[in-house]
């Protein structure tokens, strides 16, 4: 069955602490994401870029930076992603900073409720993104989307998608985590999030990690991948605003993507936090597109 893909650009760094992620969608287009996916027999439509408020670059108010603007962007993302899912298409959200995962995943959760499907979310990231206004050291909302999705956040964000909480913490698997703020650690523990941090990956290997993260999926499961490019080791992916050493290697990342592809269940994707202003000759964008290609079935050999 031919798969129908929609690219949706969300060019904003509204939730981030560094400028530049707003240029991420264009960098992925420069890295030929559409033609590369089409070379695998996929039908791909580029919906262009969403429009939202510009970044006012203001200090936090009551623990949140740019809350009205973040809300506006996430509402736009929510509607765009939900519309593509409604048409039976697979949306790829080209970020933009990771605060937009809130709009995207709340749309996926809404779609799953409407269609009676189960949801599994793989959150590939160096950070847990489980901060609240009380815990955050910066007020940057790109550190809060998972908490907001789980109902911990300001009213206007947690209500996007029409149900609070938008997701059950049990539906999420976090992979590659290696930077979590002190108070955030306690909250992750209290909410019983399933986290495969880099120590787990070091000890058990990426294969075992992914077997656990993908366990119990069935044909009625919608698999969503939220891929923050800072998941990758900064040696191979320098073009992100929040580099944390010690991430997955190129081969570990490829294995992760190939095992997701093997399930045949990938139904929506976010690619977040690519920052061309901090990149070297677009190499991080090219790597991101290379990994996305693996998510859609690129492999060295014909697999039996």
Automatic annotation (TrEMBL):
Pathway: Nitrogen metabolism; urea cycle; L-ornithine and urea from L-arginine: step 1/1. GO terms for biological process: arginine metabolic process; urea cycle. It comes from the Bacteria. It is an enzyme of class 3 (hydrolase). Binds 2 manganese ions per subunit. Its EC number is 3.5.3.1. The keyword Isomerase does not apply. Mn(2+) binds at residues 98, 125, 127, 129, 228, 230. It catalyses: L-arginine + H2O = urea + L-ornithine. Keywords: Arginine metabolism, Hydrolase, Manganese, Metal-binding. It holds the Pfam family Arginase. Its cofactor is Mn(2+). GO terms for cellular component: cytoplasm. One of its GO terms (molecular function) is arginase activity. PROSITE patterns: ARGINASE_1, ARGINASE_2. The keyword Phosphoprotein does not apply. PANTHER family: ARGINASE. Belongs to the arginase family. This is Arginase. It comes from Roseateles toxinivorans.
């Amino acid at each position: 069955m031919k798969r129908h893909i929609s690219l949706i650009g969300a060019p904003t760094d509204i939730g981030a602490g560094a400028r530049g992620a707003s240029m991420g969608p264009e960098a992925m287009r420069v890295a030929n994401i559409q033609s590369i996916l089409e070379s695998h027999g996929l039908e791909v439509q580029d919906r262009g870029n969403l429009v939202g408020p510009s970044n006012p670059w203001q200090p936090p108010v009551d623990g949140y930076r740019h809350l009205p603007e973040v809300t506006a962007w996430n509402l736009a993302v929510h509607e765009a992603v939900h519309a593509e899912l409604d048409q039976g298409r697979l949306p790829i959200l080209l970020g933009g900073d990771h605060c937009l995962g809130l709009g995207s995943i709340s749309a996926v959760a809404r779609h799953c409720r409407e269609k009676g499907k189960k949801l599994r979310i793989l959150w590939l990231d160096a950070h847990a993104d489980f901060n609240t206004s009380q815990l955050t050291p910066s007020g940057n909302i790109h550190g809060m989307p998972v908490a907001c999705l789980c109902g911990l956040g300001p009213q206007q964000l947690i209500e996007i998608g029409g149900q609070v909480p938008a997701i059950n913490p049990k539906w999420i698997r976090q992979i590659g985590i290696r930077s979590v703020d002190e108070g955030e650690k306690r909250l992750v523990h209290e909410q019983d999030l399933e986290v495969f941090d880099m120590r787990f990956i070091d000890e058990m290997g990426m294969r075992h990690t992914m077997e656990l993260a993908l366990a119990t999926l069935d044909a009625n499961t919608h698999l969503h991948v939220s891929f923050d490019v800072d998941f990758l080791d900064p040696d191979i992916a320098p073009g992100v605003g929040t580099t944390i050493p010690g991430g997955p290697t190129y081969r570990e990342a490829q294995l992760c993507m190939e095992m997701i592809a093997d399930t045949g269940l990938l139904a929506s994707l976010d690619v977040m936090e690519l920052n061309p202003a901090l990149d070297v000759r677009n190499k991080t964008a090219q790597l991101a597109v290379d990994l996305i290609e693996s998510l859609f079935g690129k492999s060295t050999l014909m697999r039996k």
